[in-house]
Amino acid sequence: MVSLRYTLTDDAGTLLDSSGPEPLTYLHGFDSVLPALERALEGNEVGFKSKVTVPPSEGYGEHDPESIFEAPRDHFPPGARIAPGMEVTAQGPEGPVTLKVLELTDGGALLDANHALAGKTLHFELEIVGLREATQEELDHGHVHEGGHSHPHGS
Ligand code: ZN
């Protein structure tokens, strides 16, 4: 298990994401984080710091204009308030997907299914702040069990 502090900025240096007050803990080797980050951290110890630049091809993909489409008003729940900049959730073939409302149209709304980070070069600053062996249960599940949180898939 790797505990990590990180900040993520774009080309302009705008902060996009960070680990916040508590470090992010993830199970190394299970694709929980971007492969480029796992490669940068591989084999390192607590205190290791690194800056990693991840191009869109190794991050969240290129921004795909085909993923922008108009959804008719009756595809939204009756009375739902929709405004540009909002995110809405829809059922996709592989589970829920997040769509960003770009603008309202006469018949509905223009939606963008691209990942919010698609097309962006990602600049990470990473610091390893903790390492421990994963428990067997964590290895079986492929994710972190920490702080006694429960999760929906039971034992
Ligand atoms: Zn679990």
What count of helical segments does DSSP give? 2
Q: For the CA atoms, what is the radius of gyration?
A: 19 Å
Bound heterogens, unique:
zinc ion
- DSSP, total strands: 9
Mean pLDDT reading: 91
Descriptive overview:
Strands 1, 2, 3, 4 and 9 form a 5-stranded antiparallel sheet that branches. This protein has a 4-stranded antiparallel sheet with strand order 5-8-7-6, with no helix packed on it. Helices cover 8% and strands 37% of the residues. The mean pLDDT is 91. It contains 2 helices and 9 strands. The longest helix is centred in the first third of the chain and has 7 residues, at 35-41. The protein is mainly beta and 155 residues long. The protein is globular, with a radius of gyration of 19 Å. The structure holds zinc ion (ZN). The site of zinc ion (ZN) has 4 residues, from loops.
Short synopsis of the structure:
By secondary structure, the protein is mainly β. It is 8% helix and 37% strand.
Question: Which SSEs are present, and which pair or pack?
Answer:
Elements: E1 2-9, E2 15-18, E3 24-26, H1 35-41, E4 49-54, E5 68-72, E6 87-92, E7 95-104, E8 108-112, E9 122-131, H2 136-141
Antiparallel strand pairs: 1-2, 1-3, 1-9, 4-9, 5-8, 6-7, 7-8
The protein binds zinc ion (ZN).
Zinc ion binds at residues 141, 143, 145, 151.
Describe the structure using short key phrases.
155 residues, mainly beta, 4-stranded antiparallel β-sheet, 2 helices, globular, binds zinc ion
